[in-house]
């Protein structure tokens, strides 16, 4: 204590004491001294030191000046300094992390909190909620040190760290001491409410931010909600209900870091480890789910192991951290200042400890439930409330308790998820196998019930796989067999062949151990299907043929019928139509006999494919629609989409493009929803073919390329080769002959190896058509001849007629007009019988060209005009340009030059739209016509055509029509003569 230069009594201090009725001994006891010293202060013998001044101010709720605790010269200095007040920053605020530039991955949430705190006009209530270790305290600390926040809350920031058992009275008295206030009545100083009232009055209209960290009890948060109108309150809590109750609109959920941010944080902490073992550290990030506390513990540990620069030590450390128990028990010493409020001073921080604090607060039943939930895979996997209750065998209230404790996250209505680190902790609570047994039992039953509900199977995909793995490791053979066979169709549909194959091999072994022939047949049926989808036809055929006698021996009619259907489908694809029909007829008869409606519908679809190829589209349509009715009645989405796609093919082949597109779109929506990769790829090719025929090559390419990506991913060689074939046909259409030839030659050996005669013939047909365009007529004849032989062998009437039509065009070009006439007439007859108006119109156009060359202009005009009329009705802009060109050449031949200009220019517009390779030839004809007519007449006629109705076959606007003509004219008038 400092003696004054002149003894002057202090009446202010004495008056303050007497007005409250206190003795000098009362004051001494409150501030921690004796009555003699208090008397010396009042007589002016000594002045209270800086240690006692704040205590006296708090005791009397008065300033040092008001109590006369400073000499006159100090009062004058304090009066000057009071004109520039300093904000009150609570020394309990944790210091910012040393040497760091900021929190990684938290810029967005910090901006959100800042905006929320800075824009509130009334009492601001905000809450940060998230998992243990997600970084709530770190965010609150960053806010407390933020210059903008400090400037806004210019009177100070108060901090209180609570934990499960906070000393509310101690925290309030500390805040009161900082603010220089205390309850007037000494007897009230043991009551938190008295301190709260005193602090609230002291804060008044000050701009103060009160941060309440680590709240476990809503009442504790309310006890410290004591700011004034210009104050704001921010709490952090791991308990969602507290956050919502404290601030229903101001709650911000703090999520884990994303993979990129997690990698940045780990790189900041342990750069050498991340650089030397990038894949291992990436796996480690996934194992802890982006939790900042976990990443910090891992990073600090790896940094200590990497300091020697020895790769061996880093590798060993990463190997050790693969184990969940090692990650849980990594510890980090805590500083004495800013330590975790839920832990005693000196307690090292670890994931085990941080999560354990929450676990200690829940009931024994809730802990049992948490342990049982460890059998589920962690986040991002989710599971249903029903599954959680069955697996844990505990009441639903325990799930509510875990959710309220912030240990179990909600992921939608009646669905939950466990963070990776909490799941690791939960494993330590699981001591028996009964939960895994219940998991297997529940999901096998669930899968059997929902085997046609692809959306539900997709939602539970990971859980079902986990359950089947549990059934396998626990030797629950019956469950393994039943669950696998219910789930295998979904996996195969999704293209997850490797996963399905592993499960099916296990189920086949289990079925043999259990001596259940029907289940052995089911396993082999699915294994054969996987082999077939991988284009391993020999393996598929052998697998099914091995299973068929077993099914027949044990009177497994359903199993044998399914295998017969697949053998029929395989025979069809390999060009054996008669054998295919035998297999399919036997299968259908058996399925009708036993009342297997779904099986019969699938067989009807396959049989429809066969007879459609054989030129019976009406019969195929009847089979398809019958199957569609059954699929819809049974709720089989996949079967429904399958038939819609097949009906779309029929519609396209019967020149109904709009109906085909509608059917394709419906099927496409379903296939995308259920994730049927194989059929999705096939449908995309059909869409590509439809849009290509409609003269939209770029859209067709998009469909083909998406199909290509799917088929590459599923390793379906046949589908992949078929996609490449169609890309080759598209390239050929656009005159990219070398690229097309490479694509055709790439797939020919694949189709030969797979014995896929139909697709081989289609490739040879496409190659032959291109060679006709290139003038390589001998090669074209060779390839078309082989294609025609194959199509006739497999009784594919439509493709036989199309190939015959191309042969007719080839014969015409080789001067064999009689042969050309016979071939074209044969093709036209068959196509008309099939109802394929589009391809029949092309055949009629070829016959018109032949008539023109034979010197029959009237017949040629009739045939070409009829063909163009049909193409216009169908808006066939792919083939209409050729019909228009032929009419133009006929008009030129008849010396009708104005008509020739009209037809040739219209033809060239279509070829430009189609990016057709014949365009330059027509441009040359138009240049010759320009010279023949003269510029003035030529341009007059072009101007008239520009302002007429666009060619109906193209379906384009007048603007596109006139703009395309203008583009053509620029090239003709200004281009080379």
UniProtKB/TrEMBL annotation:
The keyword Ribosomal protein appears for this protein: no
Region (Disordered): 1-22
Gene3D superfamilies in UniProt: lambda repressor-like DNA-binding domains, P-loop containing nucleotide triphosphate hydrolases, Tetratricopeptide repeat domain
Residue intervals passing through the bilayer: none
Superkingdom of the source species: Bacteria
Xref: InterPro entries: Cro/C1-type_HTH (IPR001387), Lambda_DNA-bd_dom_sf (IPR010982), NB-ARC (IPR002182), P-loop_NTPase (IPR027417), TPR-like_helical_dom_sf (IPR011990), TPR_rpt (IPR019734)
Domain HTH cro/C1-type intervals: 13-67
UniProt cross-references to SUPFAM superfamilies, sorted A to Z: lambda repressor-like DNA-binding domains, P-loop containing nucleoside triphosphate hydrolases, TPR-like
TPR repeats: 681-714
The protein's name: HTH cro/C1-type domain-containing protein
């Amino acid at each position: 204590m400092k003696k004054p230069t002149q003894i002057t009594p202090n009446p202010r201090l004495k008056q303050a004491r007497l007005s409250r009725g206190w003795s000098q001994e009362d004051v001494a006891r409150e501030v921690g001294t004796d009555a003699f010293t208090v008397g010396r202060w009042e007589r002016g013998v000594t002045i209270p030191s800086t240690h006692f001044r704040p205590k006296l101010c708090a005791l009397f709720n008065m300033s040092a000046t008001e109590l006369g605790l400073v000499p006159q010269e100090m009062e004058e200095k304090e009066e000057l300094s009071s004109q520039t007040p300093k904000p009150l920053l609570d020394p309990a605020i944790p210091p910012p992390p040393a040497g760091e530039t900021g929190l990684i991955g938290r810029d967005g949430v910090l901006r959100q909190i800042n905006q929320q705190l800075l824009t509130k006009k009334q009492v601001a209530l905000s809450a940060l909620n998230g998992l243990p270790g997600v970084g709530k305290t770190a965010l609150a600390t960053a806010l407390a040190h933020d210059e903008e926040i400090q400037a806004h809350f210019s009177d100070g920031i108060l901090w209180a760290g609570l934990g499960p058992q906070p000393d509310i009275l101690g925290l309030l008295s500390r805040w009161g001491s900082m603010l220089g206030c205390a309850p007037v009545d000494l007897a009230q100083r043991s009551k938190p409410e008295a301190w709260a009232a005193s602090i609230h009055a002291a804060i008044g209209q000050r701009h103060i931010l009160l941060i309440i960290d680590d709240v476990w009890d809503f009442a504790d948060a309310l006890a410290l909600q004591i700011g004034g109108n210009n104050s704001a309150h921010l709490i952090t809590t791991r308990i969602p209900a507290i956050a919502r109750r404290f601030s229903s609109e101001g709650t911000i959920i703090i999520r884990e870091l994303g993979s990129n941010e997690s990698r940045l944080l780990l790189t900041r902490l342990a750069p050498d480890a991340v650089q030397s073992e990038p894949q291992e550290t990436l796996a480690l990030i996934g194992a802890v789910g982006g939790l900042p506390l976990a990443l910090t513990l891992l990073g600090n540990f790896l940094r200590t192991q990497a300091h020697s620069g020895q790769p061996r030590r880093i590798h060993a450390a990463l190997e050790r951290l693969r184990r969940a128990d090692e990650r849980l028990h990594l510890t980090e010493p805590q500083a004495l200042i800013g330590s975790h409020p839920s832990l005693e001073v000196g307690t090292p921080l670890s994931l085990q400890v941080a999560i354990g604090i929450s676990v200690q607060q829940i009931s024994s039943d809730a802990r049992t439930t948490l342990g049982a939930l460890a059998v589920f895979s962690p986040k991002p996997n989710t599971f249903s409330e029903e599954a959680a209750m069955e697996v844990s065998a505990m009441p639903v209230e325990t799930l509510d308790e875990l959710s309220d404790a912030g240990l179990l996250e909600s992921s939608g209505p009646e669905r939950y998820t466990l963070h990776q680190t909490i799941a690791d902790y939960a494993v330590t609570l699981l001591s028996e196998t009964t939960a895994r047994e219940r998991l297997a039992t529940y999901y096998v039953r669930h899968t059997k019930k929902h085997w046609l509900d692809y959306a539900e199977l997709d939602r539970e995909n990971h859980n079902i796989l986990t359950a089947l793995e549990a059934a396998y490791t626990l030797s629950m053979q019956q469950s393994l067999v039943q669950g696998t066979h219910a789930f295998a169709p979904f996996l195969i549909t999704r293209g997850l062949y490797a996963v399905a194959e592993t499960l099916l091999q296990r189920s086949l072994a289990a079925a043999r151990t259990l001596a259940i022939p029907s289940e052995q047949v089911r396993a082999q049926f699915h294994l054969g299907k996987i082999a077939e989808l991988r284009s391993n036809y020999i393996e598929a055929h052998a697998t099914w043929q091995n299973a068929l006698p077993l099914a027949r021996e044990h009177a497994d009619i359903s199993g044998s019928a399914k295998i017969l259907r697949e053998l029929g489908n395989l025979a069809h694809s390999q060009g054996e139509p008669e054998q295919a029909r035998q297999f399919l007829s036997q299968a259908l008869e058996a399925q009708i006999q036993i009342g297997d409606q779904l099986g019969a519908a699938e067989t009807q679809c396959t049989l429809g494919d066969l007879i459609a190829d054989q030129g019976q589209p009406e019969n195929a349509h009847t089979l398809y629609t019958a199957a569609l009715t059954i699929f819809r009645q049974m709720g089989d989405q996949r079967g429904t989409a399958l038939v819609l796609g097949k009906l779309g093919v029929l519609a396209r082949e019967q020149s109904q493009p709009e109906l085909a597109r509608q059917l394709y779109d419906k099927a496409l929506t379903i296939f995308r929803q259920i994730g049927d990769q194989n059929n999705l790829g096939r449908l995309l090719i059909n869409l590509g073919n439809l849009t290509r025929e409609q003269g939209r090559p770029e859209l067709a390419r998009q469909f083909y390329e998406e199909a290509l990506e799917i088929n590459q991913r599923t390793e379906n060689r046949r589908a992949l080769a078929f996609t490449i074939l169609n890309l080759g046909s598209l390239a050929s259409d656009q005159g990219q002959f070398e690229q097309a030839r490479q694509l055709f030659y790439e797939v020919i050996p694949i189709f030969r190896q797979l014995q896929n005669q139909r697709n081989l013939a289609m490739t040879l047909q496409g190659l032959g058509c291109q060679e006709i365009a290139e003038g390589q007529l001998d090669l074209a004849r060779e390839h078309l001849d082989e294609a025609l032989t194959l199509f006739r062998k497999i009784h594919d009437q439509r493709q036989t007629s199309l190939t015959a039509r191309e042969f007719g065009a080839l014969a015409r070009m080789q001067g064999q007009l009689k042969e050309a006439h016979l071939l074209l007439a044969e093709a036209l007859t068959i196509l008309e019988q099939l109802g394929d108006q589009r391809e029949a119109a092309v055949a009629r156009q070829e016959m018109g060209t032949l008539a023109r060359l034979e010197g029959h202009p009237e017949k040629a005009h009739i045939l070409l005009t009829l063909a163009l009329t049909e193409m216009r009705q169908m808006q066939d802009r792919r083939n209409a340009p050729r019909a228009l060109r032929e009419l133009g050449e006929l008009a030129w031949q008849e010396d009708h030059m104005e008509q020739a200009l009209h037809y040739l220019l219209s033809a060239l517009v279509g070829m430009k739209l189609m990016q057709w390779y014949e365009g330059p030839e027509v441009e040359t004809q138009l240049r010759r016509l320009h010279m023949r007519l003269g510029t003035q007449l030529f341009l007059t006629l072009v101007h008239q055509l520009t302002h007429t109705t666009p060619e109906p076959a193209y379906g384009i606007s007048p603007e596109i029509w006139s703009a395309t003509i203008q583009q053509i004219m620029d090239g003709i008038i200004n281009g080379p003569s």
